[in-house]
Amino acid sequence: MEVIEFGEITPVDVRKIWPNESGNFTPWLAENISRLGKVLEMDLEVQDEEADVGDFSLDILAKDLGSGRTVVIENQLKETDHDHLGKLLTYAGGFSAGVLVWISTSIRDEHRKALEWLNETTREGVDCFGVVVEAIRIDSSKPAVNFKLVVFPNEWPSKELPHPSPKGQAYKNYFQQLIDELRTKHKFTGAKVAQPQNWYSFSSGMAGVIFSNSFALGGKVRAEAYIDLQNQERNKALFDAIYEIKNQIDKEYGGPLSWERMDDKRASRIAAYMDGAIDVAPAQLQEIKRWSIENLLRLKKIVLPRIKQALDNMKDITEPVVPPDRP
User: Fold this and answer.
1) Exposure b/e, 168-204, CB count within 10 A at least 16 = b
2) pTM of the full predicted structure?
3) SS3 at position 246
4) How far is CA 279 from CA 276, 282, 288, 297, in A?
């Protein structure tokens, strides 16, 4: 019988990896937010770092793309204390947060109980998480980072709104099948729970760009790349830069996309449409799901690299370049 040799797991002091919480750990987490999202079973997108709330600064302000909820993340590279608990609650109130995340190297029992009490008493749609960050290595390997859930809602991964309408339940059923297939077959998302709403958004892995599938007005289903860099001028400049190679992208995509600059809004979108509604026959709904998955994957493969390249090229651009025939 073959003898299997196992390595020795040893802990690594996280302070040796990130000497400074605000200068090292928070920027790293913002760049690697998908690691935390995987543990929370959410698609997270960073909105801001060191976001001001009065005289205090929240470490990371994020968004749960699947539900649209605001997420406040407070980091502490040591054992939890009362000061950071107070800050977490202050940030939650300041940003009307739906998700509270407290990351530390160790959660004291009284703070664990406080978070559990919040989960039991807060209104529907508000979830609190206590997460321990740790680092390990096997023998002389590179250190590996691990996020370990210590506190989470009793009904996690979803504290659902009670009794959705029949239409809301139909949306939830559709998107549950959609995200399950995108997660298990295509590794497109880490999300696990759908909501009773007519849309669902996914992280693209690039800040300021998300993918969405929605039932739009006028009996249309939409798959889109949504551009929102939190600045209207930059959004339009980025859209215009991509629009310059519109014909090339449309050809590679296999047909014309809908190029929507949306001058009256901050964001812009590049989308594909098909006819459809949530109340069609089951066979038609399956076809809508198949079409949606196909187009979300195609947007990621064909459109996202062009957006990334255009954004890199924009570093020296000070004024938007507007094509004369823009939509």
Assistant:
1) bebbbebbeebbeebbeeeebbbbebbbbbbbbbbbb
2) 0.75
3) helix
4) 9, 9, 12, 25
Q: What is the pLDDT of residues 61-81, one digit of tens each?
A: 999 998 899 999 999 999 999
Phi-psi region of 222 (alpha: psi -120 to 50; beta: other; left: phi over 0): beta
Alpha helices in the chain (DSSP H): 14-17, 26-31, 33-40, 82-94, 109-121, 166-184, 232-243, 246-253, 282-298, 304-313
φ/ψ of 244, rounded to 5, equals -65, -25
Q: Which two tokens stand for residue 283?
A: 């066979």
| Percent of the chain whose predicted confidence (pLDDT) is above 90 | 74
Question: What integer pLDDT is reported at residue 131 of this predicted model?
Answer: 96
Q: Which residues contact 152 (CB under 8 A, 6 or more apart)?
A: 119, 127, 129, 130
Amino acid at 138: I
Residue 125: what residue type? Answer: G
* AA letter at 106: S
Residues 6+ apart with CB under 8 A from 218: none
The torsion defined by the Cα of 313, 315, 320 and 322, in degrees rounded to 10, comes to 0
Kindly tell me the sign of the dihedral angle through the C-alpha atoms of 155, 81, 135, 26: positive
Check: CB of residue 290 under 8 Å from CB of residue 223: no
Instruction: Give the CATH number of domain 9-151.
Output: 3.40.1350.10
Round to whole Å and give the CA distance between 103 and 62: 14
Query: Please, what is the Cα angle at 115 between 110 and 116, to 5 degrees?
Result: 95
CB proximity list for 7: less than 8 A, separation 6 or greater: 138, 139, 141
Please state the domain extents for the chain.
9-151, 166-316
Residue type, 95: F
**CATH 2.60.40 is right for the domain spanning 166-316:** no
DSSP string, 187-220: ---------SSSEEEEEEEETTEEEEEEEETTTE
